[in-house]
Amino acid sequence: MAEPSVFERIVAGEIPSTKVFENERVLGIRDIAPKAPVHLLLFPKTGEYANVAELAAGDPALLADIVAIAQQLADEHCGGQYRLVFNTGADAGQTVFHVHAHVLGGGLTEASL
Ligand code: 5GP
Questions:
Q1: Which residue minimizes the CA distance to atom 12 of ligand 1?
Q2: For labelling alongside 27, which of 12, 15, 90, 96 has CA 20 to 30 A away?
Q3: Domain annotation covers residue 52
Q4: What is the tens place of the pLDDT at every residue in 95-112?
Q5: 102, 41 contact by CB (below 8 A)
């Protein structure tokens, strides 16, 4: 068995987080090291998908839910305008191999992720 990801440990309550969204299948939290005035993370509670391509192939409805929730959170936190980023692969900056969306907004610069 692989070690649980940091996001699985957050879902289990083993690591504290600031939650901004939760339903049966998805958790939304504030990023611990924000790269923009609004920097939220959205991920499935299950750790079975390492990246967005795996999620799209394995459970496209869950990916669509995450996109819809991202819009809802952006409406609440940054006027509905945002950047949605799924880093995919270590060379692209992915450090947690449990699929997650970065929702960035509130005044972005070119350097934001
Ligand atoms: P990645 O680099 O894999 O695309 O994104 C992982 C993100 O998770 C990073 O932006 C990083 O700051 C965030 N992160 C890593 N560990 C924790 C944590 O324990 N709590 C929170 N809230 N965010 C974390």
A1: 33
A2: 90
A3: yes
A4: 999 999 999 999 887 655
A5: yes
